[in-house]
């Protein structure tokens, strides 16, 4: 039963990376779009693309926390006590990001729109970095067993955590660019499609470089996980690399639909590889999934709750994304009057 719950937890991490990660990645492109005039069109597409779904994507994060807390409470306690600094920063970043995104659509002056836009973009980078750093700290065995607190600084500011944090930011930016290529084509804007296609290619190359550097850091700082990546997780590692290369080739050729699927599989492969590499440990070399698991009755009740959740919430998510893809959802916020106000 504990293995099944752990598999559901890994699937939830994949879904959050694929959906929520792309949300955060759009903030990176918002930050690097340029000034008010040059970046107006890319930012408009970003707002249009993530507006209907950005709140829904955080459901996966809440699900991850609740599932870990209920099924693996001892490990959850150790992670929270050790990683409270990056997790607090990430929580504040999520709040600031959401508020800034909402307020930017309602303010009338260009000055305040820039302030809220900068807060939205910077938070979009800070949050995935902190979450990636937490994953790196766990993988490198810096979270102790027994519900105890580890080093609050070096647990997430170390070579492995820094590499995984940067990789999380780059992968989020990569996914967002690939999605935005599709959205630009759906909107009939060939120039913007090419604009984000070039950025998706650049992000893919950077992701490959950071991944290579990350493997070196993992080899030195997380030997158990590195051994797992070259053995039990080798198949998803290879599939992730092949999907990434395939997506890169399709992006060069301008095939957005195929590239989007392969990009999703490549990023999902990274998350699955990490989970399998540290198996059977939840906290590598200190706490296994079985040791950290709640009593069987709790796991059984949790499994039933997850099934009910999938039946009730799953169709609503599918409907939301289908309506969004078909451009059937209303625009959020008010009409953008910042340009007119700035001109006056």
The pLDDT mean sits at: 86
Taken in chain order, the helices and strands follow as: HHHHHHHHHHHEEHHH
Which word captures the global form?
globular
Task: Flag low-confidence runs.
Answer: 333-344
Task: Give the termini distance in whole angstroms.
Answer: 65 Å
The strands making up the biggest β-sheet line up spatially as 1-2
Number of helices: 14
Please bin the fraction of helical residues.
Answer: over 70%
Portion in beta strands: under 5%
Number of strands: 2
Output the structural class: mainly alpha
Radius of gyration: 20 Å
Largest sheet: 2 strands, antiparallel
Number of domains: 1
Characterization of this structure:
This protein has one domain. The chain is globular and about 55 Å long. 43% of the residues are buried. It has helices at residues 2-31, 40-50, 59-71, 73-82, 84-104, 110-139, 159-186, 190-221, 223-229, 234-253, 256-277, 289-292, 296-325, 338-343, and strands at 281-283, 287-288. A hairpin with a 3-residue loop joins strand 1 (281-283) and strand 2. The protein starts with a helix and ends with a helix. It is built from 14 helices and 2 strands; from the N terminus they run αααααααααααββααα. Helix 1 packs antiparallel against helix 2 (40-50), helix 6 (110-139) crosses helix 7 (159-186) and helix 8 runs antiparallel to helix 10 (234-253). It has 344 residues and is mainly α. 77% of the residues lie in helices and 1% in strands. The model is unreliable at 333-344 (pLDDT under 50). The protein has a two-stranded antiparallel sheet. Keywords: Cell membrane, Membrane, Transmembrane, Transmembrane helix.
């Amino acid at each position: 039963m504990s293995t099944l719950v752990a598999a559901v937890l890994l699937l939830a991490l994949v879904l959050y990376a694929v959906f929520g990660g792309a949300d955060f990645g759009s903030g990176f492109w918002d930050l690097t779009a340029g000034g008010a005039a040059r970046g107006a069109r890319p930012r408009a597409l970003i707002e249009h693309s993530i507006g209907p779904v950005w709140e829904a994507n955080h459901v996966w994060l809440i699900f991850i926390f609740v599932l870990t807390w209920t099924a693996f409470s001892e490990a959850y306690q150790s992670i929270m006590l050790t990683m409270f600094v990056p997790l607090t920063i990430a929580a504040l970043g999520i709040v600031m990001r959401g508020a800034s995104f909402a307020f930017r659509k309602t303010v009338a002056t260009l000055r305040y729109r820039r302030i809220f836009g900068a807060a939205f973009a910077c938070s979009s980078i800070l949050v995935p970095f902190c979450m990636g750093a937490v994953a790196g700290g766990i993988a490198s065995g810096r979270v102790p067993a027994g519900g105890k607190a580890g080093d609050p600084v070096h647990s997430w500011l170390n070579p492995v955590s820094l590499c995984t944090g940067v990789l999380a930011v780059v992968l989020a930016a990569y996914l967002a660019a690939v999605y935005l290529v599709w959205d630009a084509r759906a909107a009939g804007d060939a120039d913007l499609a090419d604009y984000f296609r070039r950025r998706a290619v650049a992000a893919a190359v950077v992701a490959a470089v950071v991944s290579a550097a990350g493997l070196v850091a993992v080899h030195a700082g997380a030997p158990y996980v590195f051994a797992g990546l070259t053995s039990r997780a080798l198949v998803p590692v290879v599939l992730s690399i092949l999907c990434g290369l395939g997506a890169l080739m399709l992006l060069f050729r301008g095939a957005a639909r195929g590239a989007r699927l392969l990009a999703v599989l490549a990023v999902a492969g990274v998350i699955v590889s990490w989970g399998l590499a540290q198996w059977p440990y939840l906290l590598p070399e200190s706490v296994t999934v079985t040791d950290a698991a709640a009593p069987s009755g709790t796991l059984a009740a949790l499994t039933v709750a997850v099934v009910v959740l999938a039946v009730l919430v799953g169709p609503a998510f599918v409907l939301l994304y289908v309506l969004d893809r078909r451009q059937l959802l209303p625009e959020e916020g008010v009409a953008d009057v910042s340009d007119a106000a700035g001109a006056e």
